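Annex B. Sample input.
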Amino acid sequence: MISEKTHPQERIFRANRLRIIIMIILALSPSVSMINAGNKLLLGLFLSVCMAWLLLSFSKLKWSDVGLKKFKGRKRFILTVTIILVSIILFSWGLRHLVTFLLKSEPNLEAFKALKGDPGALMTGLVIAWFFGAFCEEMLFRGFLLNAFYGLFGDNLNSTARWVFSLLIVSTLTGLGHAYQGITGMIVAGAIGFCFGLVYLYNNRNLWPSILTHGIYDTIAFVIVFLGFNLDQVLKF
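Annex B, continued. Sample output.
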């Protein structure tokens, strides 16, 4: 019998490793099966979130138990998101240039070119970015999978090491999910996913800061593409 004092985000994965592995496979299966199916990847992501929801329900838990809960302190929330957002923008810009220089390969952003100068495409893109990117990705990768991998390592490692390894694995999966952007895009997306994971953990495993940071980051990126704005000219040193 698990003590009622056990944190619900840890209680979900208090099980044998085989059960945790099965849960991870079931949650990822829809996304993996559609990873090379173009726009159907979004459907796969949504179905993965639905599967994770079912797995949570079987464990008698809700999304609020893995972080989708009210964030206390509005001013702190706004300040946290703002500081982290600026940091991630600068970090991703620098990393993209570094990886591009090392691999001699730019990220493949063909999927977003339709946004340029098209208000309708921009609005559609923002709806997709917020629902599938900000909400679905954060709920699946940070809310569900990050905790699952943490539980998978059991008590063989200390808590910090377990979170670090879990972050690395989930960030790698995040990068693989952006394979359509090429190797450079995958590396940058994985690194940004790692940052979102840090945001989640830093805020006591609350998903809202990472969701808002993710959504606003994508919004800024989409607006930049829409305007044909060259961020490199502003951040050129």
